[in-house]
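Troubleshooting log. The previous structure file for this entry was overwritten by mistake, so regenerating from the original sequence record. Sequence copied from the archived sheet and checked twice against the printout by T.R.
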Amino acid sequence: MSADGSKDKLTGKIHEGLGKIKNDDSEKLKGKAKQSWGDVKDKVKDAKDDVAGKINKEVDKHKKN
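Regenerated output below.
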């Protein structure tokens, strides 16, 4: 999980909670959107790391040969 993703998820939970307290649907939606954005950031980082790992393995194979 990335720090940016975690920050967005936490911020989103806070906004969603405030929306519930204030009975503000807009604030709740803002919070849910922020949490989703954090999930997207985490998934993109995981995919990037996975691709980088595969590329590094291939490069290492060719260095040994």
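The chain is about 90% helix and 0% strand. Archived copy saved in two places this time.
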